[in-house]
Design brief:
It is a single chain. By secondary structure, this protein is an alpha+beta fold. It folds into two domains: 1-121, 6 Propeller (Neuraminidase), CATH 2.120.10; 125-174, no CATH class. It contains two helices and twelve strands; from the N terminus they run E-E-E-E-E-E-E-E-E-E-E-H-H-E. Strands 4-5-6-7 form a four-stranded antiparallel beta sheet, with no helix packed on it. Strand 6 (68-73) and strand 7 (80-81) form a beta hairpin. Helix 1 packs antiparallel against helix 2.
Length: 174
């Protein structure tokens, strides 16, 4: 189940139509709508952006042998494929669903890492090495997890990660 922030709805993965798809419910348990449909399966919900009414998920829509990232509006409209390289994509989405790290592999190459924006929040800084940026983010998250384990009451992991990504990778809009 996925509970978008500041929303009175939740999303449930179910195979009630023979394929695993997303369904949107209100908090009383009433079905609002089937969000995804087709002869393929949603494999994982990666994030949601309640203000934009958008949910991000990986699925087998492109091929049963691949996992690609898609977005769709809460009402099921405007589905978009976000990852374009064939292969299996493992997504780490930022808490606000603005940015993501994409670790993907194909038969013809080893693991690759890419940093991308989920929606138009700014232009990526020129000359940034996405692989290095992804490694820096992993190191930052490891440090934040240690702080969390030590019980730092001032820690706001989501804000720290988002601030790091903006400062290192994105040019602000003017």
């Amino acid at each position: 189940m996925t509970f978008p922030g500041n929303s009175s709805e939740f999303f449930w993965l179910s195979d009630r139509d023979g394929f695993q798809h997303l369904y949107r419910y209100d908090y009383s348990g009433k079905l609002i709508n089937q969000v995804t449909q087709g002869n393929w399966s949603v494999t994982r919900v990666e994030g949601s952006d309640a203000p934009q009414q958008t949910i991000y998920y990986t699925s087998t829509e492109a091929s049963p042998l691949q996992r690609q990232l898609y977005s769709v509006r809460f009402d099921g409209s405007n589905e978009k494929r976000i990852t374009t390289v064939s292969g299996n994509h493992r997504i780490n989405m930022s808490p606000t669903a603005t940015y993501f790290i994409d670790r993907y592999s194909r038969i013809v190459n080893e693991l690759e890492v890419a940093y991308s924006e989920a929606r138009d929040a700014g232009d990526l800084r020129a000359g940034i090495d996405p692989t290095r940026a992804a490694r820096d983010l992993v190191a930052l998250m490891d440090g934040l997890q240690i702080q969390w384990l030590l019980g730092d009451p001032s820690l706001n992991m989501a804000a720290a990660v988002e601030a790091h990504l903006r400062a290192q990778l994105v040019e602000p809009r003017s």
